[in-house]
Design a protein that fits this description.
Length: about 625
């Protein structure tokens, strides 16, 4: 249900930024208060990203107040902090639908609004895309401005640096705003983070905080004073900001919660030419005590009552992420050479407990998927047993590293691939739809798809013992609920499938957890059901045998049908001249929208009912 606007009288008047720009500057602090409260009340009813949005309320208001959006381009990095932007740009009354099936997108989305100039979800794309837009704006000569807003977490990725390196050499007009809250999802890590901390801890910054308002805000157009201001700042801020070395005019750090100062500073910077860099300090979760105190838990929240603390998760069975995290601890207890790597996803990947128990085997590399994989390659070369814990969707970033740095050299790296398949509310940018397709074509790879929790544990163990590249891919959330024996890890025979039930005529070959959905279907149809376990190497011996006793095949997987596990079965049958019809069930050739996991499974006919229907349609019509 939309929130009652009576409680937000000023915000109620703002349907679009043009309404915002009619306000007097002095009204902006009140608007920020209302916007913050609206955001809190709205997200607590819908679930979604909270702490990051609370931290950029003033920045978002100031940007839309100063810049002529949507003519001027405002590009948010990742986009999880863009809820206040959505509220101010025509979507306030639809915020109750965010992340829901057919509702507002979780992140900026081009098809949703002209104010969303770049569709996002993955991090660190804002500076590169903004640079592209600023090049076009330069050619167009209409004085269009381009601003990128990027967090101190997202700026750790190589892509951001590649773009800054380029921007510094081109000298196009653009503004990069670093929203520095000293947090990624967890605490931010790395040398850049230390550099930012040094800037902040300098005595000079303390003076700047006091005197900075004068320096940054109350001067007439910054152009006239640019030189002086720049020198002043450079002299004041020690050590010299790395961003200046990249060719940016660095201003900051400044208080990102003082909306009036932000407006003045942005107005000044707006008329500045060349690449500009504004470093603002914000507090993640600002204005909501619980989120300020625990920004990690409040990064993304379920529905909750803002008057009370966030409820503890009540799931009775462990998620696959937990199964992985528990296995990792057990394995690390036995293996001194184990090294586990996460690209900034400690919480999501189930590694919190591991990071505490085995800090010497734990590597958070920041948002740097490519580096995570090449780091693992180096470790494997030098005798360690690395494990890269990574979401399916983020592994897309590190594809060349997987091929060139790991697989070609046949190195013993285990990829623990979480969120494979339908992820739910995060939508198209986050679906783990392609990993089976892009992994199975890589020579040397072993690719495993557990159908339940114990099998997941056994496969992780099997992959870890292998002296070559291996991947275990498992979905978001809980599995079948099957109890896992914490004592047991069994090494599986490579490329050997498991017969679940024997039937006749029809053989259903299942890759992964959709097996649970296929069990009642196989029973009903009297079909043979196979838990294939391995996408690569494929159990071709079994497929050949089955083809001798069965007329029809169905393959099931939670991956794109194009190039997926089922394609492997088709290729084998064709190569052997085995003429059997095969129905491939999986994800269709389009980007899959957001919704709850059950909603999406149902929509794609991947639940029991849908699988049965698909089989009936295929075989009745043929
Ligand atoms: C390529 C990629 N890797 C990982 C993520 C997951 N992720 C989403 S937000 C986030 C942290 C971003 O931190 P920061 O940019 O500092 O923003 P803040 O939440 O602190 O405002 C991460 C790691 C992602 N979206 N994209």
């Amino acid at each position: 249900m939309p929130l009652d606007l009576k409680n937000y009288p000023l915000l109620a008047k703002i349907n679009y930024p043009e309404d915002l720009r009619l306000l007097k500057k002095q009204q902006l602090p009140l608007l920020c208060d209302e916007l913050r409260l609206f955001l809190l009340n709205s997200v607590s009813q819908t679930s979604g990203h909270l702490a990051s949005g609370l931290g950029v309320v003033e920045l978002t208001v100031a940007l839309h107040y100063v810049y002529n959006t949507p003519f001027d381009h405002l590009v948010f990095d990742v986009g999880h902090q863009a809820y206040p932007h959505k509220i101010l740009t025509g979507r306030r009354d639809k915020m109750d639908s965010i992340r829901k099936y057919k509702g507002l997108h979780p992140f900026p989305w081009r098809e949703e609004s002209e104010y969303d100039v770049l569709s996002v979800g993955h991090s660190s794309t804002s500076i590169g895309a903004a640079l592209g837009m600023s090049i076009a704006a330069g050619k167009e000569q209409k004085n269009r401005k381009v601003v990128a807003v990027i967090g101190d977490g997202a700026i750790t990725a190589g892509m951001a640096f590649e773009a800054m390196n380029h921007a510094g050499s081109l000298n196009n007009d653009m503004l990069v705003i670093l929203n520095d809250n000293e947090m990624s999802i967890s605490e931010n890590v790395g040398a850049l983070n230390n550099h930012l901390a040094k800037i902040l801890s300098g005595d000079i910054y303390t003076q700047l905080r006091e005197g900075g308002k004068k320096v940054l805000s109350n001067i007439p157009p910054i152009k006239e004073f640019a030189k002086r201001t720049e020198e002043h700042l450079k002299g004041m801020v020690s050590p010299a900001s790395i961003f200046e070395e990249f060719g940016f005019n660095y201003i900051g750090p400044m208080d990102g919660h003082n909306v009036l100062d932000l407006v003045d500073t942005l107005k000044n910077m707006r008329s500045h030419s060349g690449p500009q860099f504004l470093h603002v300090m914000t507090k993640k979760g600002k204005g909501y005590k619980q989120a300020e105190l625990d920004p990690i838990r409040y990064h993304a929240v379920p529905k909750f009552n803002p008057e009370q603390a966030l409820p503890k998760s009540v799931s009775s069975s462990p998620t696959f992420s937990q199964i992985f995290g528990d296995w990792l601890i057990d394995m690390a207890d036995q293996d001194d050479k184990l090294a586990a790597i996460t690209p900034a996803m400690r919480e999501g990947s189930g590694m919190v407990e591991f990071s505490k128990r085995h800090p010497d085997k734990y590597y958070d590399v920041a948002i740097a998927e490519q580096h995570a994989v090449t780091l693992a390659a180096g470790m494997a070369i030098s005798g360690l047993n690395p494990i890269v814990a990574i979401y399916s969707t983020f592994l897309q970033r590190a594809y060349d590293q997987l091929i060139h740095d790991v697989a070609i050299q046949n190195l013993g790296v285990l990829f623990a691939i979480d969120r494979a398949g339908i992820v739910g509310a995060d939508g198209p940018t986050h679906q783990g739809a392609y990993d089976l397709s892009f992994l199975r074509c890589v020579p040397n790879m072993v690719v495993m798809t557990p159908s339940d929790e114990q099998e997941c544990r056994d496969m992780l163990y099997t992959g870890h013992l292998l002296n070559g590249p291996a991947a275990v891919r498992y979905p978001r959330g809980v599995g079948s609920g099957k109890a896992v024996d914490a004592q047991v890890m069994t090494q599986l025979s490579l490329g050997k499938a498991r017969v679940v039930s024997e039937g006749k005529e029809l053989a259903i070959l299942c890759f992964g957890t959709l097996l649970q959905q296929a069990i009642p279907v196989a029973e009903k149809l009297g079909a043979t059901l196979i838990d294939m376990r391995f996408v690569k190497p494929l159990d071709t011996t079994l497929i050949k045998q089955l083809s001798e006793s069965h007329q029809h095949f169905v393959t099931i997987e939670e991956n794109s049908i194009a190039g997926g596990a089922g394609s492997g079965v088709n290729e084998y049958l064709q190569a052997q001249r085995i003429n059997r019809p095969v129905l491939n069930i999986g994800l269709p050739d389009r980007f899959i929208e957001q919704g709850t996991q059950p909603e999406i499974y149902h929509m794609l006919q991947l639940d029991s009912e849908g699988i049965e229907q698909q089989i009936a349609e295929y075989y009745n019509n043929n």
